[in-house]
Amino acid sequence: MGGDGESLRARSEQAIGEIAQALIDSPTLHSALQAAFGAREKALEAQQAAMSALNLPSAGDVERLERRLRSFSQRLEDVEEQLDDLTREIGGLRRKIAAKAPEAAEKADAS
């Protein structure tokens, strides 16, 4: 029985291979695939035209906007960090000025 099963499997594999080769060599299948891909491309173009006419963004437009927003967000965070640094520096300078103000007043009184 084992031999019969292997023989059947071998014949099945050969038949499948022949069918696959026939499909690959089929000009009808090639034409059908080309027509399907052409129709798909035309449908995408029609969809883009319709979305553009309705002033709706495409998926690519949304992705570009998302990238720009992320970039803008990162730049804004950088500016916020710089402002925090400047605020700390200004606070330090104010403290130094406030500490020196009594000394300057004492010198002015002494003269």
Characterization of the model:
- It is a single chain.
- By secondary structure, the chain is mainly alpha-helical.
- It has two domains: 1-56; 59-111.
- The protein is built from three helices and no strands.
- The radius of gyration is 38 Å and the shape is elongated.
- The model has no long low-confidence stretch (mean pLDDT 90).
Secondary structure elements and pairings:
Elements: H1 2-25, H2 27-53, H3 59-110
Range of helix content: over 70%
**Biggest β-sheet, characterized?**
none
Shape: elongated
Supply the number of structural domains. 2
Order of helix and strand elements from N to C terminus: HHH
Number of strands: 0
Short note summarizing the structure:
By secondary structure, this protein is mainly alpha-helical.
Which short descriptors sum up this protein?
111 residues; 2 domains; 3 helices; 93% helix; 0% strand; elongated
